[in-house]
Automatic annotation (TrEMBL):
GO terms for molecular function: ATP binding; ATP hydrolysis activity. It holds the Pfam family ABC_tran. CDD domains: ABC_Iron-Siderophores_B12_Hemin. The keyword Repeat does not apply. Residues 2-241 form the ABC transporter domain. The keyword Glycoprotein does not apply. Part of the ABC transporter complex HmuTUV involved in hemin import. Responsible for energy coupling to the transport system. The lineage of its organism: Bacteria, Pseudomonadati, Pseudomonadota, Alphaproteobacteria, Hyphomicrobiales. Gene3D superfamilies: P-loop containing nucleotide triphosphate hydrolases. This is Iron complex transport system ATP-binding protein. InterPro entries: AAA+_ATPase, ABC_transporter-like_ATP-bd, ABC_transporter-like_CS, P-loop_NTPase. Belongs to the ABC transporter superfamily.
Length: 273
């Protein structure tokens, strides 16, 4: 479990996140949604120990990270428990896909890649549907193929928690589903905490057990998609009019209807005038 307690983060001297309280249960997929610039990546990087907290704390596996400079032994131990896939995993390296995936075990490697590691890397590539690309140079892949390879790499770390920042942004429909199926399956099987930033609200509703709605640097709402996702919440967070339908499994489906001309409150005010 990961617990966030009144977390605040500043960047460039500006407060970006404030008052974030959440409990992230293991074995569940937690999807972070919210508009551009809301603070989603900042939240993920704070969880990874990549950005210092300006207030509050994060507890994970008996450790507590508080405000202040992150001392390097603490930071290393904290990050060793996690696997983080950043938004842009640009990889212009002269390395093959297989070598990049094997790097996920860095720290355990001692200048020798044993057969077990190679087999594990191949299994990860297979699960990501890119085993046939193992010997290609990573820089020669398409954006989507590279995203799948970086995903295979983070899984090799066998982490306590998986932090994925827009992992499907470059993927076609089939590979979005394939990657998120693996994410959900691994999360359940390993009882780890998964936090994934997604812009596609319908994928978030379909795959997340818990949604974290970030807006203007605060956690506006959180909970299971079915009870959380309403036209009012999505409309007010994104500034659009939406209809919320439900698919045959009961997952919410968000249908944009147009930009919100005015809030309900201002419409009532205008009607009263
Ligand atoms: N180094 C920085 N210095 C100052 N402000 C920053 C810095 N990096 C990011 N920000 C600001 O912090 C805010 C949150 O950024 P963040 O990347 O967390 O948003 P996001 O929700 O992930 O957005 P997106 O959906 O566009 O990726 C933005 O207003 C951004 O401009």
């Amino acid at each position: 479990m990961i617990r966030l307690d009144d977390v605040a983060v500043s960047r460039g001297g500006q407060p970006i996140l404030r008052g974030v309280n959440a409990t992230l249960e293991p074995g569940l997929v937690h999807a972070v949604i919210g508009p551009n610039g809301a603070g989603k990546t900042t939240l993920l990087r704070a969880l990874f120990g990549d950005l210092p907290l300006s207030a509050g704390g994060i507890e994970m596996a008996g450790r507590r990270m508080g405000p202040g400079r992150l001392g390097s032994p603490f930071r290393k131990a904290w990050r060793d428990a996690l696997a983080y896939m950043p938004q842009d995993s640009s990889a212009d390296l002269a390395m093959t896909v297989l070598e990049v995936v094997v790097l996920g075990r860095l720290g355990r490697l001692q200048f020798h890649v044993d057969d077990e590691t190679l087999q594990a890397a191949m299994a990860r590539l297979d699960a990501a549907d890119i085993a046939h690309l193992a010997d290609r140079e990573i820089g020669s892949l398409s954006g989507g193929q590279r995203q799948m390879a970086m995903f295979a790499q983070v899984l090799m770390r066998d982490p306590l928690a998986l932090l994925l920042d827009e992992p499907v942004s470059a993927l076609d429909l089939k590979h979005q589903i394939a990657l998120l199926d693996v994410v959900r399956g691994e999360t359940r099987a390993t009882e780890r905490v998964t936090v994934v930033v997604l812009h596609d609200l319908n994928l978030a509703c379909r795959y997340a057990d818990n949604l974290l709605v970030v807006a203007d640097g605060t956690l506006r709402a959180s909970g299971p998609p079915r009870s959380l996702v309403t036209p009012d919440l999505i409309g007010s967070v994104y500034g659009v009019e939406v209809e919320v339908l439900h698919d045959s499994r009961g997952s919410p489906v968000v249908q944009p209807m147009g930009r919100a001309a005015a809030s309900a409150a201002s419409r009532r005010q205008m009607a009263a005038q």
